[in-house]
From TrEMBL:
Listed SUPFAM superfamilies: Prim-pol domain (SSF56747)
The protein's Enzyme Commission number: 2.7.7.-
Cofactor(s) required, per the database record: Mg(2+); Mn(2+)
Family: Belongs to the eukaryotic-type primase small subunit family.
Name the record gives this protein: DNA primase
GO MF entries: DNA-directed RNA polymerase activity; metal ion binding
GO CC entries: alpha DNA polymerase:primase complex
Keyword Zinc: yes
Pfam families hit by this protein: DNA_primase_S (PF01896)
Phylogenetic lineage: Eukaryota, Viridiplantae, Streptophyta, Embryophyta, Tracheophyta
Amino acid sequence: MTKEELQNETDDMLIDGYGPEALGQKQKSHVPSEFNPDHLKVFYGKLFPYADFFRWLSYGNDGKHPGCDPSYISRREFSFSLDNDIFLRFQSFHSAAELENSIKEKCPFKIDIGPVYSVEPTKRHAYAHSGDNVFAPVERELIFDIDMTDYDDVRYCCTGADICLNCWPLMTIAIKVIDTALRDDFGFKHILWVYSGRRGVHCWVCDGKARRLTNEQRAAVADYFRVYKGNENSHKKVSLTGHALHPFLVRAYTEVLREFFEKGLLISQTLLSTEERYEMILELIPDAAIASELRGRWQDNGRSSSAKEDINVVRWEQLKHLVSKNKGPGLRRCVEEIVFSFTYPRLDMEVSKHMNHLLKAPFCVHPKTGRICVPIDPNHCEQFDPTAVPTLSQLLEELNERGPNDDLDDEWTGTSLEGAVSYFRTSFLQPLLKACKEGIESSYNAKLQQSKNSFSW
């Protein structure tokens, strides 16, 4: 890289919010001992599904159909995170082989995917002084990022980046609620859910109409899901106003949230078992008299029923009964607001609103956990176990145990990664590419017809 190119790269990273520590300066590596960067060479050399990955991001434009856009994939931004906090932004590639060779050469700790730009990202500086803002994002999947750390105020089993099977169902609920709405309310069909590799999930909405949404339209979709509006300084984080709940919220509550709260979270997180915990819920009751009565009951009688009954369930039923008996202002949806406060998906809204956000690519290896960022089937997301996701070291052990096998078309066959790649290929990629090719054919025929009509005079 020349001095001028390095300076340009530095300027870009500063513009995009990277601090001086990200500008290629040598820092002390933060790679934990359980993650061996040398294993990435084997992973990228044998297991990463380059062909399917490239076909996905080409959206049918890698074929020979005259309606294909041959420049499409070369205008896509890729970002590589290397050791010592070195970031390489605005990478772009013309072919699957070029992408594969670059990944194998650099062995990035993380690969992020950005938008499709109007011109190739690597050539952006040639247009920088044109004054026409030629270099701009023109297409990008509609994306959602849900992180478990945003639920720290409603889970007691873990905090921060830690997760377990008691709190992970919060991610399952988010997938169920968001996926159903994207399909039923917006008509999207090609949706990819991916485990982040550590503490959350990512959603890629890949329909053509989703990829072409403007920033304003993306913000409107994101706001459609906005219910959780609180912060660490406010007790009441959800307010369900209006004469009637939106049908989307009714469906989310009756089909998903209520049952999960009452049969799952309430018990697994013991939300009403101690004074410190039940006070959080009492603060959400707008009637001070009701909150005081419940507090008195729970303080005077720690076990308000027989030992066979779970105290959290008993106290929740008492709360619902007392609230339903009173018709004071603000109580009409008090129970629903409590359930929403504890269970409704908490989205990183800014990620969804803007085209230019980077998002970690599927099938990356998380450098903290060593786990692969595998797809999640939304139809069976309740069966997904993040603690059972294959790790880099596990996959390498499986390769060593199997030994070389020249009869295999794909190296991941017979490894723990096989199911994830197979799902990605058959359930997501094949239907997506079929729709993309139909769209290319339809658009091409429409242009031909328009061309014919312009000469029919």
